[in-house]
């Protein structure tokens, strides 16, 4: 069976059960190539499980996952990453006591097959510095290249994490709550960064901040109780009575479906 022509990521009948509890139930998701697509929903809706299934950190109970028309359902996470689907985690995953250049350089080593060769002579690895600095410039961190990661404020640590993810040259970038724990200034900076890096790649994100979703995303899939409740643009889903009811039913308030800060 062929996948939908413009869908770079597609799931069919995606289902995950945990000892009788169905966390994701028959999810048919299509992420259009070149789009910014958000997965949203009340707490417990199945967003993170769905993310874990697509990135292969969980195996589905049933269903199929396609990347660029290729069946990746049984592939390992590392193999999927090599095909261009890379995940940035909710908790910043950087080396705190290494410089920003060193953090990005480690990520750049991975496609070369010599990851984490800390014992290599500095001169051997310095050939990667030019590309590392380019990536740091791309995320607005060029002037901080010599600092250690631990010295960065929270929002810039997230930018560093995105730089290390971009070092893997992903075609599809999955962002897991990229704005979690951020103040307004950091949210604005990272939103602008996400828009910038989306120019030549596809982004799928789980995000609770509805103002971010409204501002950034081309398409939104709303999950509730493990199933797709609604899909469309932000304007469409935020007016959907079923979406408003789902958010109200969790005690999180209809305002979250209509532009509130957290859901």
Can you give keywords for this protein?
alpha/beta; 263 residues; 11 strands; 2 domains; 6-stranded mixed sheet; 10 helices; disordered C terminus; 5-stranded antiparallel sheet; single chain; Rossmann fold
Short recap of the structure:
The strands form 2 sheets. A 6-stranded mixed sheet has the order 7-8-9-4-10-11, sandwiched between helices. Strands 1, 2, 3, 5 and 6 form a 5-stranded antiparallel sheet that branches. It is 33% helix and 23% strand. Strand 8, helix 7 (184-197) and strand 9 form a beta-alpha-beta unit.
Describe, in plain words, how this protein is organized in 3D.
The chain has 263 residues and is of the alpha/beta class. The chain has helices at residues 47-54, 77-82, 100-109, 122-125, 129-138, 154-166, 184-197, 210-216, 234-238, 241-249, and strands spanning 7-18, 21-27, 30-32, 36-40, 62-67, 70-71, 85-88, 172-176, 202-206, 219-224, 227-232. Strands 7-8-9-4-10-11 form a six-stranded mixed β-sheet, with helices on both faces. α3 (100-109) runs parallel beside α6 (154-166), α5 packs across α6 and α6 (154-166) packs parallel to α7. Residues 250-263 have low confidence and may be disordered.
For this structure, the CATH topology of the largest domain is: Rossmann fold
Tell me the number of strands: 11
Question: Major beta sheet, specifics?
Answer: 6 strands, mixed
> Which band does the percent of strand residues land in?
15-25%
Helices and strands in order:
Layout: E1 7-18, E2 21-27, E3 30-32, E4 36-40, H1 47-54, E5 62-67, E6 70-71, H2 77-82, E7 85-88, H3 100-109, H4 122-125, H5 129-138, H6 154-166, E8 172-176, H7 184-197, E9 202-206, H8 210-216, E10 219-224, E11 227-232, H9 234-238, H10 241-249
Parallel strand pairs: 4-9, 4-10, 7-8, 8-9
Antiparallel strand pairs: 1-2, 1-3, 1-5, 5-6, 10-11
Helix pairs in contact: 3-5, 3-6, 5-6, 6-7
């Amino acid at each position: 069976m062929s996948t939908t022509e413009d869908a770079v990521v597609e799931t069919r009948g995606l289902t995950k059960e945990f000892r009788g509890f169905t966390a994701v139930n028959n999810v048919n998701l299509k992420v259009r190539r070149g789009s910014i697509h958000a997965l949203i929903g009340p707490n417990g809706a199945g967003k993170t499980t769905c993310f874990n299934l697509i990135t292969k950190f969980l195996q589905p109970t049933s269903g199929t996952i396609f990347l660029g028309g290729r069946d990746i359902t049984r592939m390992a996470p590392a193999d999927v990453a090599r095909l261009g689907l890379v995940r940035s985690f909710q908790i910043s995953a950087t080396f705190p006591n290494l410089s920003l250049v060193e953090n990005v350089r480690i990520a750049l080593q991975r496609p070369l097959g010599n990851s984490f060769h800390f014992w290599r002579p500095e001169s051997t690895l310095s050939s990667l510095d030019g590309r590392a600095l380019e990536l740091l410039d791309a995320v607005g961190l060029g002037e901080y290249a010599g600092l250690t990661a631990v010295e960065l404020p929270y929002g810039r640590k997230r930018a560093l994490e995105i730089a290390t993810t971009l070092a893997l040259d992903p075609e599809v970038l999955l962002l897991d709550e990229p704005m979690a724990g951020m103040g307004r200034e950091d949210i604005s900076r990272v939103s602008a960064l996400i828009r910038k890096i989306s120019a030549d790649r596809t982004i799928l994100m789980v995000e609770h901040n509805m103002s971010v979703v409204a501002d950034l995303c081309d398409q939104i899939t709303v999950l509730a109780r493990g199933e797709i409740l609604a899909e469309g643009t932000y304007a469409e889903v935020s007016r959907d009575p079923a979406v408003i009811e789902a958010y109200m039913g969790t005690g999180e308030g209809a305002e979250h479906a209509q532009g509130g800060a957290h859901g």
